[in-house]
């Protein structure tokens, strides 16, 4: 009997994709094979058929391979210009709108927050711009439980902080061995919570801005539409949506949002 390794591999990828809701067909085969082979070695399995069987029996191993395949880039304010736009244009606008309704609470959602660099970056920008007595509430969600655990600890290497101005590092972090730990910041609440963008309703509502950057590349069109409709429903009127620079809104969604910055891929709920 001749074993077709490619067929076994493709069957395995379809199984993982179906279980996770992540579309893996856009990934390079070499990347998928390399990452899956790492998990197989860790699990003591030497062929794709046996590993498919293991995933069928072991939900924990399915979580492990999904975590292995999910790319989690770990830097503060990676791709600086969207955060500069957020700080210089969006936050002042939100502040003016809040003053008109006599509110001093702002709410943000960092969707697919990875190890927490994005929600903490949002927090730093907010605390730098908004009055000291204002409250900043951030929901930070991800499907990866390991990421959320690391994010909640708030400890980062010098390399991960390289995009931050040194004065901000001193202000918002304290040394922790060879690393840096986020200081306690008054009037700031960050809730780290597991959430599946493709299968669950919005984590909350009445957000002033939703960040979901470089996530849609993992999803098919139906999943993108579902997710973006959820973002629309979770935003306050006039709330902002910030996506990745290489991403576009599906045609079915475009009437729900107006461009704020074409370059930075920032939109506003209409």
UniProtKB/TrEMBL annotation:
InterPro entries found in the cross-reference section: Bact_Chemotaxis_MeTrfase, CheR_C, CheR_MeTrfase, CheR_N, CheR_N_sf, SAM-dependent_MTases_sf
GO molecular function annotations of the record: protein-glutamate O-methyltransferase activity
Keyword Plastid listed: no
GO annotation, biological process: methylation
Catalyzed chemical reaction(s): L-glutamyl-[protein] + S-adenosyl-L-methionine = [protein]-L-glutamate 5-O-methyl ester + S-adenosyl-L-homocysteine
Transmembrane segments: none
The keyword Methyltransferase appears for this protein: yes
Domain called CheR-type methyltransferase: residue spans: 1-270
EC number: 2.1.1.80
Any one Pfam family match given in the protein's UniProt record, by short name: CheR_N
Gene3D superfamilies: Chemotaxis receptor methyltransferase CheR, N-terminal domain, Vaccinia Virus protein VP39
Sorted UniProt keywords: Methyltransferase, S-adenosyl-L-methionine, Transferase
Name of the protein: protein-glutamate O-methyltransferase
Native source species: Methanosarcina mazei (Methanosarcina frisia)
The organism's taxonomic lineage, starting at the top: Archaea, Methanobacteriati, Methanobacteriota, Stenosarchaea group, Methanomicrobia
